[in-house]
Amino acid sequence: MEHRPEAPFGRVLTAIITPFNDDGAIDYAAFFRLVKHLGKNRSDGIVVAGTTGESPVLSRPEKIALFRAAVDAAKGKMRVIAGVGTYNTRESMELAQAAADGGVDGLMAVTPYYSKPPQAGIVAHMSAIADATDLPLMIYNIPGRTCTRIEIETLVELAGHPRITAVKDAVDDLDWSMGAIEALSDDVAIYSGSDAMTKDLVEAGAVGVVSVASHLAGVSIAEMIDAVLAGDLERAGEIDAVLSPLVEALFMEPSPMPLKAGLNSYWDSVGDPRLPLLPARQETTEAIGSALEAINEFRSQ
Fold first, then answer.
1. What mean pLDDT do residues 98-123 have?
2. pLDDT digit string (tens) for 236-267?
C-alpha cells in the first residue's frame, strides 16, 4: 500500500464496555478505572456507547453522562469518540450535539438499523449527523447487525463531506474491504471493526482497529499493528495467531457477553450485561482464560 491516510483517532481504539452495578445502574467508578487501564495498555482512544457498550439498552441521559465521564477520565491523554448513531436521524443529531458539548474528540454513527434505508437515505442521515457539530465523524459499517451494508460508492460520496474522516469496517469480507480501502485511500481512514481481520486490513491499508479484544490484550494488538506498519509481516502473523483464540472466545456468544465475563474473571468487576443479553457460560469464560494464558506465555518468551 503506497498511500495510507493518517490515523485521525490513533491506531488502537477500544470499543469500551459499560460496567453495571448489581442493581443494573451504570458503575461509573469501574468505568473510570477501565479507561485508565486501557490508557496504560496502549489504547489511543475509546469509543463510548457503541455496540460493545450496549448502546441499545442505554438511555439518552446515560449516554450523555458516559460521554462526560469518559472525557473526565481520559483527561486529554486518550481520544474519546462518542457513539451517537441510532435509527432516528433527529435523535442522533441531538446526541451528537450533547456529546460535543461534553467535550468529546469525535463521533461515531452506525448505519441506521431496523428501518433498512436506501443508500441515498444513508447519505442524508450521515450527512445530517456530520452537519450537527464541528467534530470529525466515523461511519460504522456493520451489515451483520444492521441488515444494510453501506456500499463503496456511498462511502465515496460521504467521504466528500469535510467532517467525515473515518470508516469503521465490520463488513467481514476481506475482498470487499480491500476494494473500499482502495476507493477511499485519498479521502478517509479505514479502521478494522473486526478483531479477527485487523492484521489483514492494516496490511491492505487500514490505519488501525476499533477493538473489543483490546480490553484484555491491548499491548499485543498494538504491537501487531506496529509490526505490520514496519513491514515485519512474519512477526505480525505470529502475534495474530496467538491472539486468534482470544478473539474466537470473545465471540463464542453475542458480544459483549463473553467480554464482560472475561473482565469479571481476569481484570475487575464490571457486572453483567443488561437484558436481553445474559451472563456468558462458564465454558466461554474458561476459553478466554486459556487464551489469555497463551498470550502471556508468548509475551514472556
1. 97
2. 999 999 999 999 999 999 999 999 999 999 99
Catalytic residue among 40, 75, 87, 140: 140
For domain 12-218, the question of CATH label 2.130.10.10 is answered with: no
Note if 40 is an active site residue: no
Q: Return d(Cα 97, Cα 132) in angstroms, integer.
A: 6
The active-site residue, picked from 36, 113, 168, 266, is: 168
Percent of the chain with pLDDT over 90: 97
Confidence of residue 3 (pLDDT cuts 50, 70, 90): low
Q: Which amino acid is it at 181? A: I
Is 116 annotated in the active site?
Answer: no
Place of cell 464490571: 270
**SS3 state at 83:** strand
Other C-beta atoms within 10 Å of 28: how many? Answer: 16
Query: What is the Cα–Cα distance from 209 to 191, expressed in whole angstroms?
Result: 5
End-to-end CA distance of the chain: 32
What would the grid cell of residue 112 be?
441506521
The three-state secondary structure class of 12 is strand
Decide if pLDDT at 164 tops 70. Answer: yes
Query: By three-state DSSP, how is residue 169 classified?
Result: strand
Kindly state the helix (H) or strand (E) to which residue 254 belongs, with its residue range.
none
Q: Is the pTM of this model over 0.85?
A: yes
Q: Say if residues 203 and 228 touch (Cβ distance below 8 Å).
A: yes
Distance CA 111, CA 85 (A): 7
CA distances from 118 to 12, 77, 80, 156 (A): 32, 39, 30, 16
Distance CA 14, CA 44 (A): 8
